[in-house]
Specification:
heterodimer; A: 279 residues; B: 430 residues; alpha/beta; 3-stranded antiparallel β-sheet; 13% strand; signal (chain B); Extracellular solute-binding protein family 1 (chain B)
Chain lengths: 279, 430
Amino acid sequence: MKRSATPYLFLLPYLAIFALFWAWPILESLLLSFQNTRVSPPVWNLSVNWGRILGDAAFWDALRNTVLILVIQVPLMLALATALAVALNSQLLRARGFFRFAFFAPVVVGAVAYSAVFRLLFNQNGAVNAATGLDLNWIFDPVGAMAVIIITLTWRWTGYNAIIILAGLQSIPKDLYEAAEIDGASPWQQFWRITVPSLRPVLLFCLVLSIIGTLQLFTEPWLITNGGPGTATTTLGVYLYRQGFQNINFGYASTIAYAITLLALVFSIIQLRLFGRES
Amino acid sequence: MKRLLVMGAALALTVASAQQMQGNPNLRGEITVWSWDIAAKALEANIPGFNKLFPNVKVRVLDLGNQATYDRGLAGCAAGGGDLPDVYSVENNEAEVFWARFPNCFTDLNTLQPAASTLRNQFPAFKWTELTVGNKVFAMPWDSGPVVMFYRRDIYNQAGVNPATIRTWDDFIAAGRRIAQATNNRVKVGVIANGQDDEWFRMLANQNGCFYFNNEANAVTVNQPGCVTALETVKKLIDAGIVMQGGWNEQIQAFKAGTVATSMFGAWYEGTIRSNAPEQSGKWGVYPMPASRPGGVRAANLGGSALAIPASSRNKEAAWAFVRYALGTTEGQVTMLKEFGLVPSLLAATRDPYVNQPQPYWGNQRIWQVILGTLGNVPAARGTQFFQEARAIMVKTQADYVAGRFPSAKAALDAAAQQISQATGLPIAR
């Protein structure tokens, strides 16, 4: 009896914290999504939030923006990261340690600081316009603002993904390439026939992380464009925050949170179906 | 008893006429004040005067910025009243969400000495509407925002535009064309926020007697005729190519660079222009906003704030003394008017001799006469607890309508009304 209780006692601190800070909020937000929280005190109303979400134009805008970032930024970033990883892995490159650190460094910079810098860079009188000779009002143009968000995200996360992919590259046995060379395969063929298939699990890992990160995206659009102009860069994360903490409608904010969770689930299942067959 | 009554009445009379305050060196403590931009600076300017009466109260003003003050205040209330200052600034339009959702987050000012209800007559009645729930008063009126046009005399002169002849928005557009012509398109006649804010729509709607909600706060009215006209005018101005688009910071950059000839805002913008462009002294002037049609209303209100005392404050007495000094005395209010152009809502202060003085910065125009003269014509409008939600929807609707995504202003506002109704649970008024 005593022996069987011991492991649970060791687990107890974790379980208690998990219950208090994870399980309870998850349950509480589910309950909140079935309450009308626009009145004080909140009252039960099963349909007020779930009935609203599908017909809410602002929610669809946020969803569209999030998916747009997902389908443009994530593939772009992962392609860049793979190319970068291959370059960083090359025997021809000198000072590899320095370059690896340099490309990883953006992740270390505080989000608030680099968001402020990007806002300045893309100001109409900013460095980007000055350097390119353009006269774009980036932040206040719907397309420009979205471009800034995508550029910013790519700047920050490409190096991070490249380092993960680099680790994957280094675990590919060298003899595969040697054998391929003896058989007369070009570097290009080696890349597509050996490198990419071997990287599949690592790329899948990066893809899942990036998709979940994008679905939760909040910091950059909040700090750089404040979700604007209009709702042009309002992501699901920004919309959730607005409902929760600006409109103090925690019921509807919880509903949005659950909608995001459902979406993440759907995306994960699709990915596993598409890319995870062999494993 | 009778004597007491007479004494009380006499006391009330002195308070009402002089609007001065008794000091108290025994009141001690340190209080923190949250505010934004010019408003924060104006409160800071009142500390020396306050400390003459209350030498042992230390006041610390923090300038958080407008949106951050609101966001942190709501977050603090939502968290049960933590992380809040002793004195909290809130815009009248945005105030009701606090009292409606968090009735225990702020101090009922009637429970303090003297009770806020004894100060009622010293302010216009409309300033109390959004600050009062039943017989509880949660904040004290501060300034109001009668809308006027701030214009560059030299640029108007150069283009041969006489502001006295600008009576309607069509006149304003014609003036904008002449200014563009005279300056080779270098100078725009105004700056409209499109996509970041809908303040021009709100000012024009208010002028036309329309707003997001009715004054009973029980129905959505954003698709009524006054609002439709307002939205049509905003698009007309933008389509004419005579205005620049930009937010708060862009507008300041533009008038500093001299690329904009007019700013339309609540009169509190006076201080923003004067303190940001001291080198343009003497070049500016003021005229009333143009009307929607000949002979129409040429007045509106934008902004105007109040001060509240969070229930979590440990120095309520000191906080209340500071609030009453800054907002409830002629001295406090006129200091803020002089230094930062905040338009007093304290009635005694609007009758202060300072109001009639010519202002050197404004080409010796008696601008406060012009500005305060419009106050009586401002149609009433109420923010309600859903102000921010309605505003977010309207910002988007305006941007979409300007971009040509709706066949008409009415169609755009019908869609907005639908969304606001869905977001708030309030019906659309017939």
